[in-house]
Every structure is written in structure tokens, then in C-alpha cells.
Design a protein that fits this description.
About 50% of the residues lie in helices and about 0% in strands. The protein contains four helices and no strands.
Length: about 70
């Protein structure tokens, strides 16, 4: 499966944990873990909440589709 999001990488860059992110966006840590491993993807509204929590542009959380 192709990696669609960069949530795990941005968490590392920001020195934050998936547990912290789960608390910030009000989701179960197991759900956030699935996002970090690209097993599942958050909806667009949740991507915005994640971006706000991490203080990044939402586009930084998504892998590019064109080079």
C-alpha cells in the first residue's frame, strides 16, 4: 500500500507522539496509530485539526501525487 500521508514524519519533526496527537484531536490512540502507518486515513476535517495541532499547513501532511 502506498503511503498517502506524512503524519508520522511530521510528528517526528515536531518531536511529538501519536498519543499526544490523539489527545489533541480527540481520537483513540489506536486510530492515530493507523493513520501514522497509513493503514487508514483521517477525513479532511480531521486533517485540518491535525495540521492546526502540529502548527503546519495541511499540505505538509499529504504526500505529493505529482513530481
Amino acid at each position: 500500500m502506498e503511503d498517502l500521508n506524512r503524519i508520522k514524519l511530521v510528528l517526528v519533526e515536531k518531536k511529538r507522539t501519536s498519543k499526544w496527537l490523539a489527545q489533541e484531536v480527540g481520537r483513540d490512540p489506536a486510530t492515530v496509530s493507523k493513520w501514522c502507518t497509513n493503514v487508514s486515513q483521517p477525513d479532511l476535517h480531521t486533517f485540518v485539526k491535525i495540521a492546526n495541532a502540529l502548527d503546519v499547513d495541511v499540505r505538509e501532511l499529504i504526500n505529493r501525487t505529482k513530481n
